[in-house]
Amino acid sequence: LALTEMSSPSLKIGAYILIGVGALTMLMGFLGCIGAVNEIRCLLGLYFTCLMVILITQVAAGLVIYFQKEKLKEEVFHVVSKLIENYDPSKEDQRNLEDVWDYVQTQIACCGWTGAKDWENNKLLINQSMTAYPCSCSNSSMNLQIESGFCNLDVPVNGTATHADWPVHEQGCMDGVEKWLKDNLGVILGVCTGVAVIELLGMILSISLCKNIHSEDYTKVPKS
Fold first, then answer.
1. d(Cα 143, Cα 167) in Å, to the nearest integer?
2. Which residues lie in coiled coils (predicted)?
């Protein structure tokens, strides 16, 4: 429920597309196996069609992400900003989503979407005069085992603290994610190309099987 309320329209559409592609892939594999084992042309034809639809969907999704990346970046910013603002470890209904964000901050070594300053909008931290900070943002070796919730400042601050007083990573997760994508671009493109090649091979094999079945059926027809 929390994820649905915080999702942007583009993210929802993307999630539905992934669900649809997953379901189609399962159906495709089932039809392909049955069609190949029993040499049923119509099932092999459906298998070919499913593979073609999946391949077209993947290409379309890639083009949408490329040409709409600025809009997607803006929508992700709004989603993450709302998540950070309402982050509360005591609320179980949004715990899963918060755990995902804590994991992102821990693994990428980042804090907030644009920077640690984003966390100054959190309601709980405001009530504590910013004398606490998100543990998953910590750059201190003492907090490596604490990957969620809030940690208290070790050094007392007179009055209200700011994100500059926190022992956290300076890099925002937006820059961290972009850097990760650039560093792993070759691997990502390689995987996508490999998947596309496998799908094309599946399409070619299904056509070949259909032709072989058609040839066998033709030879079995008695000549008048």
1. 10
2. none
- What is the model's pTM? 0.65
Among the listed residues 69, 66, 88, the one whose alpha carbon sits nearest the alpha carbon of residue 77: 69
Give tens-digit pLDDT for 14-51.
667 667 767 777 777 777 777 777 767 777 777 788 78
Task: With beta carbons less than 8 A apart as the criterion, state whether 48 and 203 touch.
Answer: yes
The beta-carbon contacts of 41-44 under 8 Å, at least 24 apart in sequence, are 41/210, 41/213, 41/214, 44/206, 44/209, 44/210, 44/213
What's the CA gap between 128 and 190, in Å, rounded?
A: 48
Cβ burial of 111 (10 Å; 0-12, 13-18, 19+) is buried
- Best CATH choice for the domain 9-208 from the list 1.10.1450.10, 1.10.10.10, 3.40.50.620, 1.10.3980.10: 1.10.1450.10
Which of residues 204 and 40 earns the better pLDDT score? 204
CA distance 67 to 49: 27
Q: DSSP assignment of 38-71, as one string?
A: HT-HHHHHHHHHHHHHHHHHHHHHHHHHHHTHHH
Do the bridges between strand 132-134 and strand 150-152 make them parallel or antiparallel, or are there none, so unpaired? antiparallel
Q: Which candidate, 176, 222, 209, places its Cα nearest to that of 39? A: 209
Within 68-184, residue ranges assigned H as helices are 69-85, 95-108, 123-127, 173-183
